[in-house]
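Please complete every field before forwarding. Incomplete forms are returned to the sender.

SECTION A: IDENTIFIERS
Entry label: holo-134
Bound molecule: coenzyme A
Molecule representation: SMILES string

SECTION B: INPUTS
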Amino acid sequence: MTSEMKSLTEERRRATIRTIPQPADLNVNGNIFGGWVLSQMDLAGADAAVRIAGGPVATVAIEAMKFHRPIELGDVISIYADIEKTGRTSVTVKLDVYAERGVERSLHQVTEGRYIFVAIDNDGRPTPLKNSHK
Ligand SMILES: CC(C)(COP(=O)(O)OP(=O)(O)OC[C@H]1O[C@@H](n2cnc3c(N)ncnc32)[C@H](O)[C@@H]1OP(=O)(O)O)[C@@H](O)C(=O)NCCC(=O)NCCS
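SECTION C: PREDICTED COMPLEX
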């Protein structure tokens, strides 16, 4: 097994979401629409945040976002979520998005961002986190 194949295997193990964008997700430039990847990152971040919150969360802010390269049709997208910080009710999640591309399945970072989620109660108000991420 080459080192690139090994790192791909390790990356797959950590991926929160693996998905394949479809032609309906294209923008007018023929690449994948940025809003598509934003929503996938929101889902991946919320999945990580819910584990810490111990219940539902709402996205309160997107603090940083960088589109490194366009996502192309045929790419297989993996999203990795790392809990960066927790507060009383909020969870900050760093999200890194990679594309596996072409027959050789080369790996490219396409996007990264930092999303903040807040644990909410049944009335949609902020509520303390129930779990620790350590
Ligand atoms: C999320 C929501 C319940 C938070 O309520 P709020 O009264 O604004 O929140 P508070 O001011 O009490 O802050 C709650 C936490 O969020 C953090 N927070 C609030 N606004 C923030 C911002 N713009 N950036 C970073 N953190 C922020 C606060 O620091 C606090 O964290 P802590 O408890 O860990 O210290 C409310 O803003 C809301 O319902 N927003 C709409 C959510 C939504 O529709 N999202 C899209 C779909 S999920």
